[in-house]
Design a protein that fits this description.
heterodimer, A: alpha/beta, Glycerol-3-phosphate (1)-acyltransferase, seven-stranded mixed β-sheet, two-stranded antiparallel ribbon, B: alpha/beta, seven-stranded parallel β-sheet, 45% helix, NAD(P)-bd_dom_sf (chain B), Epimerase_deHydtase (chain B), Lipid_A_modif_metabolic_enz (chain B), NAD-dependent epimerase/dehydratase family protein (chain B)
Chain lengths: 302, 368
């Protein structure tokens, strides 16, 4: 007897049977790893003019950061719908945490959680690119020097650019000043957005302040090493390299509503009053959103 | 209007000779005069065709007589040395570059027949540092003025050419800022450097490299000589590669050395006459340099045939790899198929032990 067949009366009713896709087996992962190794050994991968190496970022740098994002800091993201899927935008965020881990976590957030898997092109201080290994890795992860030329070039190409206008003042501030925004530079980021007509997306990051609570600043050591600050935390330099393990604080990252700049026109970048006003507006928005996120977070390590 | 009499300096080097040969092949050009301190090689001489060779030192006022006697109307200045080894040390190199250019410009200023000057400059004038924007346009200047060597000479030379332009506003001037040359025939800084099987690089730095194929360099120079472009233009291939990537694509090995050690290795290798690289070239190896070539494509009207990657691939044909990329590919390919076979076998065993439940073939039909 031939097998009985289903005659669908109302085909929309039933979900067709789809076998559950099995996660890639070990042999597929190993084969993928071998392919990656082959590409790396023969140099057959693409890098861009800023030194961004998507192959390395996807297969090495992001996988290294992902456990920190998911397990260690348990990052929650809000407002990803405010980040455009395919056009240029300038994400402006608060900076904290002694080491720029917040920049790395935001990179993972935008790549893993945004539906369009956006690449986050960070703008870093020149000091970053002077340090061996760190500078090279930063470029490979997609960062470039924080200057108007690079920012405008990236925004014109439709990239998602990230900037931390507080700079060293924000990342190297003492723990008692946590979640108070520092001065926002000279507003260079606003003029870059105005010149390219890219929207500004204020971004508030809660959690980074607690990873390395900076209770002191060894200024003499900082001067000796030629860095803007030398952090003293409860565990560093007391416990040596162990002090480099960040505290597992709970992180929240919120992307606010875009502030559009296209209607002002590129000439508005030459109007200092407007630039200052927009800078202030972005700063106020981020500060406000920081307070809201802090209320939302149950406890520092919760 | 094509030039009638062209004077090319530095004609004994590959690029200068190739340009002179290209111009000599153009029947619209009446005379091509090649100048150099050393005579061209016999092979080069055959290529030069009807080019008249004048063995003269541009540092010598004699060059003025050559320009006046032949009533040269277009001068292509490419006798700028990038390495001390080629000209017998740093002091003669600087003398040739800077004093030579001054003499040549002085002679041009005196000659009323000159109406066009093409300068083969370099993107090294932008410097290389961690404070630089990623991509230089023609309007940018070096954040840190190069402190010495070829880059400093080039900055000085461009300065002299600018003041020449002020004194002779009737002369059209084209300044071509070339990125690093590469190709099977050209002898450039990078071709020598990359020929080493073990390439020393700065530990912890990876420079962005933009290359220009020799054929494209020749094309741009020819167009600049016979065309009417005036101004400054960056010349480079499309796209960039990282230095580590370049070395891997050539199948060579990278030898990352701490920055201070690199200097002594450089001095050592210079002493033994392998490759010489100055501090400013080492800065280039740390940070690299990329230029914007939009003006080259739009205003100058030339699109390089080779991208950076294609130019490197063409050069790679002439370089014996240490680690052959095809060997790497076959080894990893072999390993991949081995892994696949082991995986299939393991899968078969697993299916035997734990059969997958078959997909439901029969489903209940709901009541209509």
């Amino acid at each position: 007897m031939p097998e009985a067949r289903v005659i669908q009366l109302r085909p929309d009713d039933d979900e067709p049977f789809v076998p559950v896709p099995s996660p890639p087996g070990w042999e597929e992962q190993l084969a993928g790893g071998l392919q990656f190794l082959e590409r790396r050994l023969t140099g057959e991968y693409d890098t861009d003019e800023f030194g961004f190496d998507p192959d390395l970022a996807d297969h090495v740098l992001l996988p290294v950061l992902r456990p920190f994002f998911q397990k260690w800091f348990r990052v929650e993201t809000f407002g990803l719908e405010n980040v455009p899927a395919d056009s240029g935008a300038l994400v402006v965020a608060n900076h904290s945490g002694t080491l720029p881990i917040d920049a790395l976590m935001t990179t993972v957030a935008l790549h893993d959680e945004h539906p369009a898997s956006r690449r986050f092109r960070l703008l870093g201080a020149d000091l970053v690119f002077e340090i061996p290994v760190v500078g090279a890795m930063a470029r490979k992860l997609g960062a470039t020097l924080a200057c108007n030329e690079d920012a405008e070039r990236l925004l014109t190409e439709g990239e998602l650019v990230g900037v931390f206008p507080e700079g060293f003042k924000g990342i190297g501030k003492p723990f008692r000043e946590r979640y108070t925004l520092q001065r926002f530079g000279r507003g260079g980021f606003v003029s870059a957005a105005l010149r390219t007509g890219a929207p500004i997306i204020p971004c508030a990051i809660v959690g980074a302040e607690e990873i390395y609570p900076m209770i002191g600043n060894a200024k003499a050591a900082a001067r000796l090493l030629g860095v803007p600050y030398f952090p003293v935390t409860p565990t560093f330099p007391l416990l040596g390299p162990l002090g480099l393990v960040p505290l597992p604080s709970k992180w929240l990252i919120a992307f606010g509503e875009p502030i559009e700049t296209a209607s002002y026109g590129p000439a508005a970048a030459e109007d200092p009053m407007l630039v200052f006003n927009l800078t202030d507006q972005v700063r106020e928005t981020i500060q406000h959103s920081l307070y809201q996120l802090l209320l939302r977070r149950k406890s520092v390590f919760g | 209007m094509p030039p009638a009499v062209v004077l090319v300096t530095g004609v004994s080097r590959w690029l200068g000779g190739a340009l002179a040969a290209e111009l000599a092949a153009d029947p619209a050009i009446e005379r091509v005069i090649g100048v150099d301190t050393v005579p061209p090689s016999p092979a080069m001489l055959r290529r030069l065709g009807r080019t008249e060779f004048v063995r003269a030192d541009i540092r010598n006022p004699l060059i003025g007589k050559v320009i006046a006697a032949a009533s040269v109307d277009t001068v292509v200045h490419m006798n700028i040395s990038s390495t001390p080894a080629g000209s017998g040390g740093r002091a003669p190199m600087k003398e040739l570059n800077v004093i030579g250019t001054m003499q040549l410009l002085a002679a041009c200023q005196r000659a009323p027949s000159v109406r066009r000057l093409v300068l083969k400059s370099t993107s090294a004038v932008y410097g290389a540092s961690s404070r630089d924007p990623a991509v230089f346009t023609e309007n940018m200047q070096a954040r840190q003025v190069p402190s010495g060597g070829f880059a400093k000479d080039s900055v000085d030379i461009e300065g002299y050419v600018r003041s020449f332009a002020r004194r002779r506003p009737d002369v059209d001037i084209a300044v071509l800022r070339f990125t690093n040359f590469i190709g099977p025939r050209i002898d450039s800084l990078l071709t020598g450097f990359l020929r080493m099987p073990l390439v020393p690089t700065a530990l912890g730095y990876d420079a962005r490299v933009q290359l220009l194929h020799e054929d494209d360099a020749l094309g741009v120079l020819t167009r600049a000589t016979t065309g009417d472009f005036t101004g400054t233009v960056n010349v480079g291939g499309e796209g960039t590669l990282l230095l580590s990537q370049v070395i891997r694509r050539l199948g060579h090995l990278e030898l990352p050395l701490p920055y201070p050690a690199l200097g002594s290795v450089g001095r050592l290798s210079r002493r033994f006459g392998f490759v010489d690289y100055s501090p400013e070239q080492m800065r280039f190896l740390n940070f690299g340099r990329v230029v914007d070539t939009a003006r080259l494509r739009s205003e100058f009207g030339f699109t390089p045939r080779y991208t950076t990657a294609a130019a490197l691939a063409d050069y790679a044909r002439t370089v014996a790899p240490v680690v052959d990329p095809s060997t790497v590919r076959s080894v990893t390919g072999g390993l991949r198929s081995l892994v696949g076979a082991v995986g299939d076998a393991a899968g078969a065993v697993e299916r035997r032990l734990r059969p997958v439940p078959p997909p439901p073939g029969l489903r209940a039909v709901r009541d209509a």
